[in-house]
Amino acid sequence: MAKKAAVNPAPENLVVKEGEEPWTQAELDEIIAELNDQRAHSLALLEAQEAELSGLMKDSGDGAGQDQADMGATSFERDQELSVVNSEKDKLAQIERALTRIADETYGICEANGEPIGKMRLMAFPRATLCMACKQREERR
Q: Among 49, 51, 106, 134, which has the minimal tally of Cβ within 10 Å of its Cβ?
C-alpha cells in the first residue's frame, strides 16, 4: 500500500492564471483531501480487482470440461478485468504525480508549455497536468 505523501506547500507559491485569485490554504487542503480520497478508493479497487483477476487466472485451467463459449466468456472477463486494473493503475499514478507536484510546488504548471493550468480546471480535475489548449491538442492526435 502506498504511503501518503507529506504535502505542506505554501499555497501562495502555486501558480494561477492571470486574473485568478491566488490559492488559499482551504482550497489547497480540499484538493489534497480529494486526491487522498481518490487514492484510497483506487487502492481498494485495485486490491479487489487483482484478487478477482487472480481467481480468473487460476480458474482458466486447461479448458478441460469447458466448451468454447465458456472459455471465450472467461477470456473476455479476464481481459475486462485486466483493462480495469491497468486503468486504475494509471489513475493512481496520476494521483501520486499530482500530490508530488503539490509538494514540490510545481502543481498548476502545464507540463507541455509551462503555462498555468488554471485553478478552475484543477478544482474540477485535480489530476490535470495540461492546460486546456494542450489537452485539446493532445486529444486531436
A: 51
